[in-house]
Specification:
alpha+beta, 140 residues, globular, five-stranded antiparallel β-sheet, 5 helices
Length: 140
């Protein structure tokens, strides 16, 4: 359940995105927009940079009054992801999973090239990502 502070932070960021994303042409510009000092009411830090041109960008957003959010930004071109994000039933199933964080909100906004950009807000959970947690060491 979101607190009023969390809802306010989410609304502020969503308003910025709705206003500014149509002026952008790629995901990196959206991150720079969020990182801009003009929006000093929150902090933005990179959790994962895109590894290829249309890979997701994941950032942590926090302010002094609320819990942190994770924001995943990617092009809305993956049918399986869109299928899940657009289905209240499947989102509920994900929320019931013990190994997944809660999706707080998801929406799309077209950028300056009319590519739909998907924004997915999750509750932030501090920890080590799975790809770094389990490293295999082979003995000779």
């Amino acid at each position: 359940m979101l607190t009023n502070e969390n809802k306010n932070l989410l609304m502020k960021i969503k308003d910025i995105l709705i206003r500014e994303v149509p002026k952008t042409t790629d995901i990196i510009q959206i991150y720079r927009l969020l990182q801009d000092n003009n929006y000093s009411e929150y902090k933005c830090s990179v959790l994962k940079e895109p590894r290829w041109s249309d890979d997701a960008f994941i950032v942590k957003i926090s302010d002094s009054n609320s819990s942190d959010f994770t924001l995943k930004i990617h092009y809305d071109k993956y049918p399986m992801a869109s299928h899940v994000y657009n289905s209240p039933h499947l989102l509920t199933k994900l929320e019931q999973c013990l190994f997944s964080t809660t999706i707080v909100e998801t929406f799309i906004i077209p950028n300056g090239h009319l590519n739909n950009i998907r924004f997915v807000f999750y509750e932030y959970i501090d920890g080590t990502p799975l790809d770094k947690l389990y490293t295999c060491t082979l003995k000779p």
